[in-house]
Amino acid sequence: MEELNSYFNVNKETWNKKVAVHAQSEMYNMEAFKSGKSSLMPYELQALGSVEGKSLLHLQCHFGQDTLSWSRLGANCVGIDLSDEGIKLARQLNEELNLNARFICCNVLDVSKHVYETFDIVFTSYGVIGWLPDLKPWGKMIAERLSPGGIFYLIEFHPILWMFDYIEGKPIMKYHYNQEAVIYEEYKGTYADKSSSIISKEYGWNHGLGDVVNALIEAGLEIEFLNEYDESPYDVFPDLIKKDSGMYGLKEPLFPMLFELKAIKK
């Protein structure tokens, strides 16, 4: 556990550095967001429908744009993130925009030590599960925080994408689809600003679809659907092509880029 904590501490330090860079980036488009533009994408909006009056727990929320976008749609939101700088900015945005979300800084695996209520919806999205060494405690925590009849929704980059190393710019297949050993990467810049001078140091883990599904089933959730898509809403991988829909795709789409999963607590 001590070794895992050292990995988490390195990741936290990196994400704390990323917050200021991302808040100024074109990708996060802070001015448009403050003016009312939603940061949510079509997949999650369609899957969850109206959230008016519902309680929503957002896991790994970064600095809260998606959390606050759900809040604008009428949800009663709590956002969780490992980065104290991210949570600090999320709270500032919540106050500035006169919204009613709450934000808590903690490791996502420790949520049940900090949050005791249950929720109609638990939501998490885009680049989240790779920071977790084991999905079983993650699934257990999700089940603990869902009310009976509650929905868990995940939209995430497809695990096939994480088989590649992107550090040199050109994707090189390097990692196992379901690799248990930790993966360490160190590189200049971030996905939102590749020209940034910050050095990102990151520990991560690869999880196949079976790992994700079985962690949730083992926790007692019932899978409603699992879908895969040949596109991404974010231009965060090398050599993507922008489609007419505004989404991004691979030049040679031989495998999916995203998957989404919806589960219910009976």
Automatic annotation (TrEMBL):
Biological-process GO terms, alphabetical: methylation
The UniProt keywords, alphabetically, are: Methyltransferase, Transferase
Q: Record's InterPro entries?
A: Methyltransf_11, SAM-dependent_MTases_sf
Q: Does the keyword Methyltransferase apply?
A: yes
**Gene Ontology terms, MF aspect:** methyltransferase activity
Top-rank taxon of the source lineage equals: Bacteria
Q: Which residues form the Methyltransferase type domain?
A: 58-154
- Family matches, as Gene3D superfamilies: Vaccinia Virus protein VP39
CDD domains attached to this UniProt entry:
AdoMet_MTases
This chain belongs to the protein called Class I SAM-dependent methyltransferase
Give the source species. Winogradskyella alexanderae
Taxonomic placement: Bacteria, Pseudomonadati, Bacteroidota, Flavobacteriia, Flavobacteriales
